[in-house]
Amino acid sequence: MPPLTTSFTVNGRSYSPPAGPVVALCLDGSADEYLDAALARGRMPHLQRLAVGGFRGLARGQMPSFTNVNNTSIVTGVSPARHGVPGNYFYDVARGQEVMMNSAQFLRAETIFPAAQRAGRKVAVVTAKDKLRDIFAAGLIDVGGIAFSSERAAQAAPATHGIGDVETLVGPTPDIYSGEASVYVLRAGVRLLAAGRADFLYLSTTDFMQHKYAPEQPEALDFYAALDEQIGALLELGARVGITADHGMNAKQRADGSPNVVYLETVLGQRFGPGFRVILPITDPHLVHHGALGSFAQVHLPPSAAPGLAEVLEFVRELPGVTEVLDQRTAARLLELPPDRMGDFVVCSGRDVVLGRTPEWHDLSLLEAGLRSHGGRYEEMVPLLLSTPLAPAYAAKAQGDPRNFDLFDFLCNGTTA
To answer: 229 and 314 share a domain?
Structure first.
């Protein structure tokens, strides 16, 4: 077997991990405000120690600020223009179908995990949402790695997940609509590391708690304290830890607590007639989180091509709550997205505004605690933390425009320890 320090190259990026264990965390929905609130109240002492002894800053996430696109960027080290996943959901124009992008079949770039496994590492990927597991596991199980979700921990089997005793190792499968679904992910990482079954890990949580609670609410503080306990256990085991998020989170409601929604298909139909198709890339199986309402939309013009694009763009730019409207070519360039999986134009909304299709398309009864969501520019900036100090070149990079999908680069190549 090659030595643990063997380097590997994936998608044009080279990685030289240290001999000791490496753990990358994606804390789903963790706007920096959540860490600030918990740290200020003394609820995350291990994270405090990590930040003081290592590095704490911010990174720019991938737009749109949704789960699938950002996690895929992190695990490939490249933007969607290269890896091909521009959201959780898209309209396949060639097939005339709206498609959920929760399968490795949509990947156009390799993840770093098979290469790390082939280089001699013991790779394990644990995600809360099973929708991401197939993407993360692409090519990994075949070379001896591990990939499973807390959502379906009981269903893990050696042939399909590289492991078959998850509940014995970690505990009973948690409810996906709970904070425990995320804590379980980190606990699994601790148990795998302690048992010597993994030394190169990616742990990706779910944002149920952030959708439900603001940073200073007791439930959120208790949740981050529970995450901190597991972070401390990873550090105690000698892991080099890197932390980022896929996106932030903001309240998206009016003063009376009702969702603050611009229903794009409705207003476009009223102004120009039927035939517009609005695609909401936040759409996924977990509608209790967000009701498929986020701050980013892809819009396809009616097949008749009337009205003209310029007229439609000008109208949408004037809608209250809309902050950015870009035609496909401009959006693909500025947001680094694959044009063939985009609409004719994209729309972003403000900090407290979400975009919808029609009132009938969304079941707002699912949103019992009000609406907190993401997807736009106001959820684009995310935390970036490393447990060891940065080398000079990476300290300079961190002061520029670091991306959340640079996480493995920083972890493997960028620290002094």
So the answer is: no
64 token code pair: 């749109």
Segment 330-343, tens digit of pLDDT: 999 999 999 999 99
Contact 52, 231 (CB under 8 A): no
- Tokens 């609509």 map to which residue? 177
pLDDT at 5 exceeding the cut of 60: no
Percent of the chain's residues with pLDDT above 90: 84
Q: What is the mean pLDDT of residues 47-52?
A: 97
Question: pLDDT-based confidence at 98, cuts 50/70/90?
Answer: confident
Q: Is residue 155 a contact partner of residue 172, using CB atoms and an 8 Å limit?
A: no
Same domain for 362 and 386? no
In a shared domain, residues 180 and 282: no
Instruction: Share the mean pLDDT of the chain.
Output: 93
Burial of 365 (0-12, 13-18, 19+ CB in 10 A): exposed
The answer to whether residues 345 and 398 belong to one domain is: no
Task: Please check whether residue 164 lies inside any domain of the structure.
Answer: yes
Model-level pTM greater than 0.90? Answer: yes
The one-letter code for the residue type at 196 is G
Give the bridge partners for 326, in sequence order: 346
- Residue 115 belongs to a domain with what CATH number? 3.40.720.10
Residue 189 contacts by C-beta under 8 Å, 6 or more apart in sequence?
23, 124, 126, 198, 201, 203, 230, 234
> How far are the Cα atoms of 117, 266, 270, 307, 369 from residue 26, in angstroms, in the given order?
20, 36, 41, 43, 25
In which domain, by residue range, is 56 found? 10-248+380-413
Which residue, among 304, 351, 334, has the nearest Cα to 312 in the 3D structure? 304
Domains identified in the chain, total number: 2
Residue 109 neighbours by CB distance under 10 Å: 22
